[in-house]
Amino acid sequence: MPRKIRQLKADLKEAGFVELKGRGKDSHTVWEHLDSVTTVTLSGQNGDDVDPYQERQVRAAIARARQAGIIDHREQRWTRSMQRTA
Questions:
Q1: Quick one: which of 23, 22, 18 has its CA closest to 34?
Q2: What does the pLDDT look like over 13-52, one tens digit per residue?
Q3: Cβ(9)–Cβ(42) under 8 Å?
Q4: 16, 45, 39, 54: CA torsion to nearest 10
Q5: Phi/psi of residue 28, each to 5°?
Q6: Which of 13, 14, 29, 37 could form a disulfide with 24 if both were Cys (CB 3.0 to 4.6 A apart)?
């Protein structure tokens, strides 16, 4: 049985994405990660089956957001350590 749009939305929420209200038309919703500039647009109602391209887009966006978070945390630690030595 294919996954449903509601499951992709739950995956996005769990990964730290928020829905941007007023950005999508009709059955489209736009999601953005809080810590990065990664956005995803999903089309379809909650009970609709997920298309393979949508699954790939969501997985890629979650991976990009995680990578951006790791880089940001490393930069923050580096910046703090440089401030201590100055």
A1: 18
A2: 999 899 998 887 888 999 999 877 789 999 999 999 999 9
A3: yes
A4: 100
A5: -90, 135
A6: 29
Helix (H, G, I), strand (E, B) or coil at 21: coil
Q: Write down the pLDDT at residue 70.
A: 52
Are the CB atoms for 70 and 21 separated by under 8 Å?
Answer: no
**Over the chain, what is the mean pLDDT?**
81
* First-residue to last-residue Cα distance in the chain: 59
CA-only gyration radius of the chain, Å: 16
Residue recorded with tokens 């401030």: 83
Q: CB under 8 Å to 3, separation ≥6 — which residues?
A: 49, 50, 55
Q: pLDDT at residue 6 above 90?
A: yes
Which amino acid, 9?
K
